[in-house]
Design goal:
The chain is an alpha/beta fold. It has nine helices and 14 strands. The protein has helices at residues 14-24, 40-50, 59-64, 80-89, 104-117, 131-141, 175-191, 288-302, 310-329; strands at residues 5-10, 30-36, 54-56, 70-73, 93-97, 121-124, 148-158, 197-204, 211-219, 224-230, 232-243, 247-250, 262-267, 278-283. Strand 11 (232-243) and strand 12 (247-250) form a beta hairpin. The protein is globular. The two termini are 39 Å apart.
């Protein structure tokens, strides 16, 4: 059996504690080996909760431990690139939370670091390997809904806490960076194409200066994706893909439950009343964060491509950048090509 990859966790961030660390406890190929924080007391508390054997009072000490092979970076957005590069420079593989960077130029620094230091670096877009998304892509490629023509998406929650990094402009907060990146990513996945041009409408919070309501259109060679994301709206998420002969509706596309099955709805549109013609497919219970860590670990051991490579992360960021430009110019913008 493949030797488990020893992981170090960078900081005691809430996403790490709430989702990733519990998931990694169930990994087959990944092992929680250390955690580093600027607060040694916080690191000790988290280590005790998740049975992490090594505790470090700084990020640098974590990087310097030769036993640690891979780093999970859940720091605020504006710190992703800096600390991922520092980890790579110590020979550590890095799985960095999305969005990977604040710009295409910044993400390309990570690409350079990956190649210079000969390590694996990937973006933690767990949807890329979630069974419900793999099944959706399989159905679309098999022609189940005909030629895919349109994607519709919503992702929103309500958060007006001024101390939350999602509401801090200097931390690269806001709806588009935090959650709008998901309908962009999944639209690109399902279409299997890159958008040719994009346009957006953004409303910013007058105090936070972050975008609190963002709507966008992405024009693909085969069709269009339309989505809205918001940090000050009802808690909701949904993605739909419509073809010329059917549609697929993903019930909980992004924060997939870990204690109940995921469901996708496939409908040929023959009965519009109460979804009479719809078929529901149920996917087995799983944890997408467990799958993500295991597959990244396998890529390390087998020296293969990580699930969500930097090239894809850069392409996603290019769309985000273009949408910000569009909100400013009021015009269609073309995402930067690699």
């Amino acid at each position: 059996m493949m030797k488990k990859v020893k992981w170090g966790i960078l900081s005691t961030a809430s996403i790490a504690q709430g989702r990733v660390l519990p998931a990694m406890l169930n990994c087959v190929h990944a092992e929680l080996a250390g955690i580093g924080s600027r607060s040694l007391d916080k690191a000790k508390a988290v280590a005790a909760e998740f049975s992490i054997p090594k505790v470090f009072g700084s990020y640098e000490e974590l990087f310097d431990d030769p036993e640690i092979e891979a780093i999970y970076n859940p720091l605020p957005n504006h710190l992703h690139v800096e600390w991922s590069i520092r980890a790579a420079s110590r020979g550590k593989h890095v799985l960095c939370e999305k969005p990977l960077s604040r710009s295409v130029a910044e993400a390309r620094r990570l690409l350079e670091a990956r190649d210079n230091y000969h390590v694996k670096i990937g973006e933690a877009f767990m949807v890329r390997t979630n069974p419900q998304w793999l099944r959706t892509i399989e159905l679309v490629r098999a022609g189940r809904i005909g030629k895919v023509r349109s994607a519709l998406g919503y992702f929103s929650y309500f958060n007006v806490d001024p101390a939350n990094t999602r509401n801090i402009a200097d931390c690269a907060g806001g709806a588009l960076m935090d959650i709008g990146c998901y309908p962009i990513k999944t639209s690109r996945m399902v279409f299997g194409e890159e958008p040719m041009r994009v346009i957006s409408c953004i409303e910013r919070d007058p105090g936070f200066k972050t975008d609190r309501l963002t709507s966008a259109i992405l024009e693909f060679p085969s069709g269009q994706s339309v989505f809205t994301s918001s940090t000050q709206m009802v808690n909701y998420q949904r993605m739909q893909f419509l073809g010329d002969t059917g549609r697929i509706d993903i019930e909980i596309p992004f924060n997939a439950p870990t204690d109940k099955p995921c469901r996708i709805l496939i409908d040929d549109g023959k009965d519009l009343y109460a979804g009479g013609s719809a078929i529901v497919e149920t996917l087995p219970v799983c944890n997408q964060f467990t799958i993500q860590a295991d597959l990244f670990s396998i890529a390390i051991r087998e020296n293969t491509e990580v699930p969500n490579p930097l090239e894809d992360a850069i392409a996603n960021m290019a769309v985000i950048e273009a949408l910000f430009r569009s909100a400013h110019s009021g015009k269609w913008e073309i995402p930067e090509r690699q």
